[in-house]
Every structure is written in C-alpha cells, then in structure tokens.
C-alpha cells in the first residue's frame, strides 16, 4: 500500500515518507484530532494472507506491547488493519536519529557514552522481559534517539512477527533475526528467549566499543559457524575490567548462564562512582507486577522532579487511585537524575516525627543529609499529614540536597509544596453495546490493566470476542480506580469474565472499603457536604454549591465554599479551572459511595429539601447553553417531579 502526502486514514493525515525497506514503509503522519505527529509503519506482506490464529496472536502481542511502560521503548499507539489483511502500526515519532548512523563505518563511541547507551537499552529490555515480551531483533538499526537524547527501542512485538530479514532463521514458523546479532541458540533452531535479546545487546555493545562486530565473517555460513562455535574477537580496546567481564557474560554460548537485562542494569549502576546508591532503597517489598499505562502522568512527574526550584511534590488522590504504584515507578525511572539514589519509605507504622525520621534513615542506611542529589518518596501517611508536615519543617533545612515526593490523599499546606493530582485511569464515560464504544474501551488504560492482571491470574481474555463486553461491564462501574480493577481481575475464573466469582455489585462494594476508610476521617459537616455534593451530575460551580448544599445544622461548620475547598484539598473532589470560574466534581466511585450513604443516612425530609434546592437552582438557569448545566437541569426536573 503506497500512501501519498495528504492521504487520510481515519484521523491520520500522511505528511511524508520517512523511510522504506523490503518489508515495510514508514510515514510521518499527523493525528488531526489531538494534533500529534506519529510514525505510521505499513507492513508490506508478500504471499498469502495471515490465518485467523496468526491474526489473533498478532493482536494479543500488540495489546501487550502497547501496555509496555518504559521511556526506552517506542510507544505503540495503535494497530490498523488494511484492506489486504495486513497491518499498520501507529507509533511514537522519534526524531533524533538512529544508533546505526553513529557507528557508521568503523566509528565507535567512547566507553562512557557506550555504557550510557547500553544501560538504557538493557533498561528497556528489562521492562519488556518482565512483561513476557522478547524483541528478537536487537541491533543498532532498531535503536533510536529522541531529540532530547533519550534512547528508544523500536520494532517490538508486531514487527518481529510480521517482519524479518532476507536471511533469517525460522522461529515458531516465522522468519526472524539479523545474522550479525543473532544468538547461537536461535541459529541452532532453538526457541528465542530473553537471554537471546541479552546476547544481541552484548553484540551491539561490542560494536559500540570497537566499531566492528565480535564475529566477523566473509560469508553467511562462516558468520553463523563463528557465532555458534568460536569466541568473540579480542576487544583490543583499553576498558575497565568490569565492562570486559560483563560483555563476556552477555556473549556466553550457554544462554542459561547469561545475566538478565535487569541484572545488567544493576551491574552498571553498582560499578559507577557512588553506584551502590543508584537503586531504589526501600523498607517495603518491590512490586511484583508489571506497570501499566499512566505515561502522561509519568512524564509530568519527571518534569517536576527535574525542575531546579521544586524540592517537594505532593501527589494527591483518593485511596485506591494508584499513588503508591506510580510513586515507585517514577522513582525507578529517574535514578539517572539523582546521584544520591531514590529511597521509597513506608511510614505506615511511624506514629511521630522521630519514628518517621528513623524509618527514613533505616531505609537509606545513613542520615539523608550525607547524600547530595537524593530523592525521598514517602508513603503511608494517611491520617498523619500534620505529623509529616512537622517533620518536613525540620528536614528541609537539615537535608538541603534532598527532594521529596509525598504520596497523600491531602496536601500538607507547606510553603514550596507543589501539588500533583492523580486521577483515575482512562476509560470511556459511558458503556454501550456500540462496537465503536467497545473498541474505544479496549484501548484505554483501565481495560489494559484489567487484561494484564487477568493474565497474571492465569486468565487469557479474548478481547476480540465476547470477553470484551463482559470485561467492560465489570470495570465500567469501577471508574478507573486501579486497586478496584486489580481486585476484579483477581476474581476471574479460567472460564473468563462471564463466570465472575463475584457480581459487579459485590466488587463495587469491596472497592468502597478504601473510600470508607478515607470518609470516616472527615468531620460530620464534611460528610454531610460530600453526600449533598453527590446530587450534582457532571460537576458544579461554587455558586451552585452555595445554593444547594446546606450544612447550617452543624454549629462548627464553615461556609459552604470553604467546605468545598476542604473536600478538594482531601481528594474527594476534582477541580478544573474554567475561564470564568472553577468547576468541582466528585470522582465517580466516590459519588456512588456518597449517594449510597445519602440514601441510607439522610431522612426523607432532608432528601426532599436537597432535591428541591437542586431543582430550583438549575430551573432558574434555564437560559444557559452549557451541556453540563442542561444535564443538571434535566436531573433537577426529574427530582422536582418526583417530590411534588
């Protein structure tokens, strides 16, 4: 399929061709809806169309690859099927060049730069391997650089299934691999594995350091024989012993003896000056599951953490929204920016400032003031925010080389505190039987998380068939709360989502446990205000809140506007700045909880009075054109008619 500039494929408009090979053409395209440039790779198939089983495997691997979350992997945005039954990959556009161009001829990198590239390459591979994905064609031509110098591995997943080289080795019935970088076990016809990627990365490192391959051959048979039988050519480059030893381990013929990609990253970090600190120290267990989604949130946090004028960031959000997991992930990704290391500390059992400081020092192994360039990620502070604020008042001046990322449901009201609000994972606002809505649902982070956690539990979801609707019905009420989604996935039976061990209502009830824990910490007037705020559908202004919410029965209650501000401070509400005002709203899961509490605890006269105030306010706004106001007016009319 040839595409000319101006050609449209859905929202994508072709701008120009970026490059082509025997098996595919890559175009630069623009997504006209969200104004993002993407790389569109059109796979040129030759021969018979793929069969249904192969198509299903391609789609499944594409879903997994799209869920990979690493700064060193080119993001797969989507997959498009062409009229001839082939596929187009919509990918992140990486504009900074190709590693192959940097070592053209016999050029080589200095050892420090080579190790920087190799570490990033291994870090990306480790992310993929932990998600049970192998690349199987690692080589300099598949390693790109963004304009800021960030390394990106290209051609994951679908590319390795559909695309090969003219000279390649069969694997699972498909052509695969580039001979110069192919592991000996693959040449011998065995299955490729994560260790095969490590071999290819080792060959790439050898070439970066020397400007030549470790197994030169004048012909393909000679090359393959050397790879399987001979030792690599001598390096003839003056290198530290630890680099030479690590390279030897990558190129071991026995693939079981090669280090993993993650072990290679740790070896490189440990060998650097101060390297023992270049890891996430912690007093809690590291996550044993892969990270899914949240790319924009990660990017924003990394920018904040890199800002020179930011020493303290508070990531806020309700319980169950995923603050802990995101805090761990971002601390793992910014290690290169913090020479003093990153320390993740759980303060759940620390009752006072002294105990908090002791937990921090125990996790680090020394006084934080002894380390420059240190990031402290503090979790488990619910109900003790004032204690933590007192501690930070002492630590900030004593530990000038330390930055803080705080994970809390509420802000601490400290000078210099930067708030980062973490919202739910993305999913469509409404669920219908429409195939377009269902297809859209399958692309959102909520469904991706559900599918990955289901696979972790031994359940393979068929999101191309009936499992999609059944899965969407399960996770739609959970409103993008990761903890609730993971708990729902854990309840699945091998038969799939249609045979859930708990009903969606029971799962929703279970997710209310987290909301209840946070709700019980509120004052009576705050609980009352929250229950009344749940009557709004689609958000509300302060004017609406002051007209509808009534907390005068509580002698110690503040003004309604202060109550609303306080609920936002404690992550029960979201706030969006508009041109003329601020619009508040409840998280959907919290709204469902608050409405249940409203029905169970408010007497009938109070319910009727709230409905009347709500109806009167919005009926008075009948001249407004806002969709949100019209939605609220419709609800108001229904309530008014029901309570006449």
Structure description:
With 644 residues, the protein is of the alpha/beta class. It folds into 5 domains: 8-54 and 72-92, Phosphorylase Kinase, domain 1, CATH 3.30.200; 99-271, Transferase(Phosphotransferase), domain 1 (Orthogonal Bundle); 280-421, P-loop containing nucleotide triphosphate hydrolases (Rossmann fold), CATH 3.40.50.300; 435-516; 522-642, Arc Repressor Mutant, subunit A, CATH 1.10.10. Helices cover 43% and strands 14% of the residues. It contains 24 helices and 18 strands. The strands form 5 sheets. A 6-stranded antiparallel beta sheet has the order 1-2-3-4-6-5. Strand 14, helix 13 and strand 15 form a beta-alpha-beta unit. The longest helix has 20 residues, at 111-130. It is globular. The N and C termini lie far apart (65 Å).
How are the secondary structure elements laid out?
Blueprint: E1 8-9, E2 12-20, E3 24-31, E4 36-43, H1 52-66, E5 76-81, E6 87-92, H2 99-102, H3 111-130, E7 143-145, E8 151-153, H4 158-162, E9 169-171, E10 174-176, H5 184-187, H6 194-210, H7 220-229, H8 241-250, H9 261-271, E11 280-282, H10 295-306, E12 312-316, H11 323-333, E13 342-346, H12 353-364, E14 374-379, H13 385-398, E15 402-408, E16 417-421, H14 435-443, H15 445-456, H16 466-475, H17 482-490, H18 504-519, H19 524-533, H20 542-548, H21 560-569, E17 573-577, E18 582-586, H22 588-601, H23 604-619, H24 627-642
Parallel strand pairs: 11-13, 12-15, 12-16, 13-14, 14-15
Antiparallel strand pairs: 1-2, 2-3, 3-4, 4-6, 5-6, 7-8, 9-10, 17-18
Helix pairs in contact: 3-6, 3-9, 12-13, 15-17, 17-18, 19-21, 19-22, 23-24
């Amino acid at each position: 399929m040839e595409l000319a500039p101006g050609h449209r494929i859905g929202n994508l408009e072709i701008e120009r061709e970026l490059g082509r090979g025997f098996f595919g053409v890559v175009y630069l395209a623009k997504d006209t809806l969200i104004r993002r440039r993407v790389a569109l790779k059109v796979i040129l198939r030759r021969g018979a169309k793929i069969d249904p089983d192969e198509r299903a495997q391609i789609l499944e691997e594409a879903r997994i690859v799209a869920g990979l979350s690493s700064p060193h992997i080119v993001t797969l945005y989507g997959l498009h099927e062409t009229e001839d039954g082939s596929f187009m990959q919509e990918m992140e556009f990486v504009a900074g060049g190709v590693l192959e161009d940097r070592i053209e001829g016999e050029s080589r990198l200095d050892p420090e730069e080579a190790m920087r590239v190799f570490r990033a390459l291994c870090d990306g591979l480790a992310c993929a391997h932990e998600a049970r994905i192998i690349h199987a064609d690692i080589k300099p031509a598949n390693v790109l650089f963004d304009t800021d110098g960030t390394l990106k591995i290209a051609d994951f997943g679908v590319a390795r299934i559909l695309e090969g080289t003219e000279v390649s080795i069969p694997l699972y019935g498909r052509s695969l691999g580039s001979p110069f970088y192919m592991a000996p076990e693959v040449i011998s016809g065995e299955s490729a594995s994560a260790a095969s990627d490590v071999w290819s990365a080792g060959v790439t490192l050898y070439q970066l350091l020397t400007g030549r391959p470790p197994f030169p051959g004048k012909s393909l048979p000679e090359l393959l024989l050397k790879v399987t039988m001979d030792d690599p050519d001598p390096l003839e480059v003056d290198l530290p012993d630890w680099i030479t030893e690590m390279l030897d381990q990558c190129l071991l013929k026995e693939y079981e003896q090669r280090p993993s990609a993650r072990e290679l990253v740790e070896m490189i970090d440990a060998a650097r000056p101060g390297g023992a600190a270049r890891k996430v120290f912690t007093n809690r267990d590291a996550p044993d599951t892969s990270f899914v989604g949240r790319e924009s949130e990660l990017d924003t946090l990394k920018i904040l953490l890199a800002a020179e004028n930011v020493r303290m960031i508070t990531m806020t959000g309700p319980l169950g929204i995923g603050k802990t997991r995101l805090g761990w992930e971002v601390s793992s990704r910014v290690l290169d920016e913090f020479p003093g290391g990153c320390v993740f500390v759980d303060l759940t059992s620390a009752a006072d400032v002294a105990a908090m400081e002791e937990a921090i020092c125990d996790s680090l192994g020394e006084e934080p003031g002894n380390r420059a360039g240190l990031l402290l990620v503090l979790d488990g502070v619910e109900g003790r925010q004032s204690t933590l604020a007192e501690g930070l008042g002492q630590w900030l001046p004593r530990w000038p080389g330390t930055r803080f990322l705080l994970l809390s449901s509420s802000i601490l009201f400290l000078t210099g505190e930067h708030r980062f609000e973490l919202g739910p994972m993305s999913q469509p606002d409404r669920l219908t039987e429409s195939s377009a809505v269902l297809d859209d649902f399958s692309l959102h982070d909520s469904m991706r998380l559900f599918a990955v956690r289901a696979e972790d539990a031994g359940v393979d979801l068929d999101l191309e068939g009936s499992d999609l609707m059944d899965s969407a019905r399960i996770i739609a009420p959970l409103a993008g709360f990761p903890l609730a989604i993971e708990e729902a996935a854990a309840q699945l039976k091998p038969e799939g989502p249609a045979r859930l061990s708990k009903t969606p209502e029971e799962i929703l009830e279970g997710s209310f446990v987290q909301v209840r824990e946070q709700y019980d910490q509120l004052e009576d007037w705050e609980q009352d205000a929250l229950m009344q705020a749940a009557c709004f559908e689609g958000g509300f202004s302060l004017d609406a809140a002051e007209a509808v919410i009534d907390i005068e029965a509580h002698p110690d209650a503040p003004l309604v506007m202060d109550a609303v501000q306080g609920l936002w401070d404690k992550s029960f509400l979201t706030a969006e700045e508009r041109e003329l005002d601020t619009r508040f709203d409840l998280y959907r899961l919290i709204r469902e909880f608050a409405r249940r509490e409203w029905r169970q605890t408010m007497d009938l006269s109070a319910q009727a009075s709230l409905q009347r105030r709500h109806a009167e306010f919005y009926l008075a706004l009948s001249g407004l054109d806002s969709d949100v106001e019209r939605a609220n007016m419709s609800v108001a009319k229904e309530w008014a008619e029901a309570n006449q």
